[in-house]
Amino acid sequence: MGQEIERKFLLKTLPPDFDQNGGFRIEQGYLATEPHGLQVRLRKKGEKAFLTCKRGLGIVREEHEIELSDVQFETLWPLTAGRRLVKRRHEIPYRGHLVEIDVYERTNQGLIVAEVEFETEAAAAAFIPPGWFAQEISGNPEYSNRNLARE
Fold this sequence. Notes:
Hypothetical Protein Pfu-838710-001; 3 helices; mainly beta; eight-stranded antiparallel β-barrel; 11% helix; globular
C-alpha cells in the first residue's frame, strides 16, 4: 500500500528566485470522486501519463499510481470531461523538503498553492513553513484538486 502524507498552503508571496516561466505543465482529470475521499484521476505530467487512485481525507491518504502509455491515457481522457484542471508545477527545495508550487491556469487562474510531502506524520507535524507561506489549507475541500477540476 502506498501512502501520501502532505500539507498544503496558500502563499503570501512567491519565494526568492522563483522562475514564473519554469516548471512543467500538468493536465489533470478525474474519472471518479466520492465525498468520503476516494478519487481516481488521470494526469499528464510533461511527457508522462499516470492513473492514480487515492483514498482518505486529511493529510494522510492511501495512494496508488501506475504509469500509462499515451494510447491508454488518450483512451481514458475523454471520460474526464468537465472534471479537469491545468497547472504549472515548480519544485523548490526548502530545508530538506521539496516544496511543489502549483500555479493554476484557466478557470482557476490566480490560485497558487504550495504542497509539501513527508515521510512520516511526525515530520509533517514538525514542519515549520517558510515566511512566504500563508494560510494552511490541508484538508480544506475548497482547495482540493478534485473540487477545482471544473473544465
